[in-house]
Each structure stands twice: as structure tokens, then as C-alpha cells.
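FAQ: What does the model actually see?

It sees only this:
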Amino acid sequence: MEYNDSEAGRELGERARKFVDEIVLPVEREHTGEGAVSDAAIEELREEARERDVYCPQIDEEHGGLGYDFRDVLPLFEQAGRSLLAERAMRVAAPDEGNMHTIELVGTEAQKEEWLEPLVAGEINSAFSMTEPAPGAGSDPKMMQTKAEKDGDEWVIDGHKWWTTQGSEADVFIVMARTDMDAHPYNGTSLFLVPADADGVEMVRDIPHLGPSIVHSSHAEIKYNDVRIPEENLLGELNEGFTHAQQRLGPARLTHCMRYSGMAQRALDVAKAYLSEREAFGGSLADKQGPRFDITDEEIRLHAAGTMVRDAAEKIARGEEARHEVSASKVFTANVAQDAIDTALQLCGGSGMSKDLPIADFYASVRSFRIVDGADEVHKRTLAREFFSDVDPEEVSEVPTFGE
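And it is asked to produce this:
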């Protein structure tokens, strides 16, 4: 199915498709079922990605990327999602992708040199440290407890965070903290760049969690105990942390959508290949109406998801916030991707549950998408408020009444 992608976007997506098919998938198949792929193997894939001009396309050339517009990188993100290795190889995996975007967008030149460029090069890793244990910020970020206070030419951060993705491997954290306790959190919260080796950064544990096995993925619990950082580590404007977080989350939610759409498409491709090879009940399973209709339903919904995401991306590219379009895209795509991967696993039977195929890892990975970057319920709450904002009482002026 075709989309209104630009020629540059289509060419980038095609290069990415060839890279995934010719380079990444053979490595994936070699390691499937054997645990996490080594950092050395990932670095070899990155070298090939650089050679093929599909490495970090979303960051400007001056910082080591390829300098593509946001709308044009979407086809590559979709191809990257077809393998958990590909998104890391092309340096478009979360959370680094969103963190690089944030530093590029609101960071100082010194911050870009110190943190962004090593991130683009793959020399360091990063994490976004926002979510807190109860009674702190979760789905309601206004409940944030972590605070940062100015002391001379330093900021002092105290707080307790968890579910900090890639926290155990991170060299730098983007930490969200309250900086004006008298203001509403939306107007009194800031972002800070905190080196992982700063005094007072306490790595409590990696939280055991549902997730894939072919790539290592941590979600850390971290305490910030009187962590002192220089004042120049403030990221963006003081008390504008929520504004900057939204600038980060809009595009990040859409790139998540594209990656998981690619993952779902790959799962369906595996299922179609399996059904075509497997015979039972007097013929090929691929010829049975039930599986064919199941696959067709998922393909239709994936196409609708891709169209929604591109519509939201177009608005962002024009400078619009597109908050509701992003929320709708995120909720719909998360559920479509989950359903498609579940369908693929079911159609592959026992083989789908095995680690010999990638579907089991996809299944373990996709479930988190309905929670990360805003749970379904949070986005639906936002959308419902919009949908009920202009109720016209005249629509029920002729409703039947009784006893009058």
C-alpha cells in the first residue's frame, strides 16, 4: 500500500529496507533464541548502517546525523521496527532517539558538543528519568516529587525515580524535577542533564519486567541524593520542563508508532510464510479462509495506522502541536500492533511461541507500548475532553419525552 511520502523519504526507506533484509535479518536469525546480541555485533551493524547512509537520519549533519526532515524519516523508522536489532543499528531506538532530539532542540551548543554528538556516534547511552514511585509522578505527571534547588552556581537534585528505560546502561540522564514549588507543576518544572557517575546518583535496581531477549533492555530504579550539577546543566528554559517534554514526546510517540508498525508487519510476514509452508486439514493453511481473513484484517488496520501517523507528522512538520492527532495515532497504533503480533503468534501455533522465530520477542516487546509514552487511558482522557468540548444541545431538542 502506498502513502504520500516524499521522494527523499521513499528513497531513505528503501535503503533501510535493503539494509534490514540484507544485513540485519541474517544476524538476527543467527542469534534468535540465544539471548542478547553483543555490543560488538551491534557496532558492526552500525558500521554497515553508516556505509549505507541509514545511520541516525533524524539528527542534523553538523552533529553526525544525516539531516533529514522529521516527516521524511518515518519510512526508515518503519523499516527499523522490523527487527529489534535494526533500530539499534540505525541509531533510532528509544530512549536515545528522543533524548537526542530533545538536546538538539533545546540544548546549548556546549551541551550538544558534550552529550549530543557522542550520543549520535553511539559512544554513550542516555535515559529519560521522569516516572516516580507512588505517590510521585506516573500517569499524572503533575504529582512529581523530585525537586531541584539552586545553591550558588549549582543545582541540587533530590528525588526517587523508576522505570527509567536504559537507566543501567546510561552515561547521562535527562532528569525532570520541580524547580518552583509554589507554581503549578506545568509552570515550575525543569529538565537537567545529570551524568550517571555524579555523586549521589544511586542505582537501586533493574526492575524485572516483560521484554524481549535478543536485545538487553533495562528499566532502572534510581535515587538522586543531593546530586550536585553545574548550573549550565539545565536543559532548555527554566521552569519549562513540561513544555520541552511535550516537544520531545510528540515526535517520539510517532516514531514509536512507526517502529511498532514495522514490527507488526514483520510478524505478519513471518506468519504468512509459515502458513504457506504448513499443511494441515487437507491443504495449505495459507489457503484456509480463516487465516487469510485474519491476516487481511490486520493488514487493513496497519494501513490505517500508517495513514494516521503520517497525518499527525505532517502537522508537526508544519509547526503545529498536533496533540490530539498524536494521541489518537498512539492509542490506535499501539492496539493495532499488539493485535497483529498476537494474531501472527496464534497462526504460527507452537512455532510462534518458540524463540526460534522473532514473534515471541515481538510479543514480549509490544505490550509495553500501550503504557510507555502515555498509557491508553491517559490519551483517551485527553481525546474525550476534546470530543465532548462542543456538545450541541440542539441535537437532542426533539428527543422523545413521556408524561408531559
